[in-house]
């Protein structure tokens, strides 16, 4: 963790359609995230803006979270991707962005967070376990998309983390 005076001044905002291109570039620059089509990121910054968040430092996009409320399960927020550019890591930004989404009125009836993580992504595992701890919530894991069955052996299994109930 950085000392206070070293923490970057970062502003969080609801994404705008014009942010889609910067999101596309930030995701592409930060493996192991799967890069998306620009069209996909434009949908995230328009139709899914209320469930996404952008982090800006000196007019540069340094963080982004995409997600949606599950259509058949309105008490569950599915977090699609979280990304923080290398220079902005290690100061609690990913955690702050996700907590800020959960404070929105759009999520007033949401009690669960779901996301998937590959078994080798320790940073992401730590991030979600830390959130669960802060919320005093349980974490259940299971395989959502299997390496062989769903990815034809071309991608690691994606393990589902279901966190909750979340009472803010
Ligand atoms: C994963 C990622 C979003 C974390 O961003 P970040 O802003 O640095 O994370 P935070 O500072 O909010 O850290 C949250 C917690 O995770 C822990 N953590 C973060 N990165 C870590 C790492 N590389 N190794 C171990 N723990 C880590 C922190 O110590 C912190 O724990 P604490 O609250 O108990 O102190 C960032 O590393 C990233 O964008 N990685 C590439 C893309 C990716 O893998 N995204 C997730 C899959 S969708």
TrEMBL record:
Pfam families: Acetyltransf_1. It catalyses: L-2,4-diaminobutanoate + acetyl-CoA = (2S)-4-acetamido-2-aminobutanoate + CoA + H(+). GO terms for molecular function: diaminobutyrate acetyltransferase activity. It is an enzyme of class 2 (transferase). GO terms for biological process: ectoine biosynthetic process. Residues 10-168 form the N-acetyltransferase domain. Gene3D superfamilies: 3.40.630.30. The keyword Lipid metabolism does not apply. SUPFAM superfamilies: Acyl-CoA N-acyltransferases (Nat). Keywords: Acyltransferase, Transferase. Pathway: Amine and polyamine biosynthesis; ectoine biosynthesis; L-ectoine from L-aspartate 4-semialdehyde: step 2/3. Its EC number is 2.3.1.178. The keyword Transferase applies. It comes from the Bacteria. Catalyzes the acetylation of L-2,4-diaminobutyrate (DABA) to gamma-N-acetyl-alpha,gamma-diaminobutyric acid (ADABA) with acetyl coenzyme A. NCBIfam families: ectoine_EctA. Belongs to the acetyltransferase family. EctA subfamily. This is L-2,4-diaminobutyric acid acetyltransferase. The lineage of its organism: Bacteria, Pseudomonadati, Pseudomonadota, Gammaproteobacteria, Alteromonadales.
């Amino acid at each position: 963790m950085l000392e206070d005076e070293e923490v970057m001044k970062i502003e969080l905002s609801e994404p705008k359609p014009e942010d889609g291109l910067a999101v596309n570039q930030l995701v592409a620059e930060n493996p192991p995230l799967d890069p998306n089509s620009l069209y996909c990121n434009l949908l995230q910054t328009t139709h899914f803006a209320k469930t996404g968040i952008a982090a800006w430092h000196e007019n540069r996009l340094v963080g982004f979270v995409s997600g949606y409320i599950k259509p058949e399960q309105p008490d569950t927020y599915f977090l699609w991707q979280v990304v923080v550019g290398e220079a902005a890591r290690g100061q609690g930004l990913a955690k702050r962005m996700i907590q800020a989404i959960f404070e929105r009125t759009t999520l007033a009836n949401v009690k669960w967070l779901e996301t998937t993580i590959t078994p080798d992504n320790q940073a992401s595992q730590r991030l979600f376990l830390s959130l669960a701890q802060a919320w005093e919530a349980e974490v259940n894991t299971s395989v959502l998309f299997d390496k062989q069955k769903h990815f034809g052996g071309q991608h690691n299994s994606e393990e589902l983390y279901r966190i909750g109930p979340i009472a803010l």
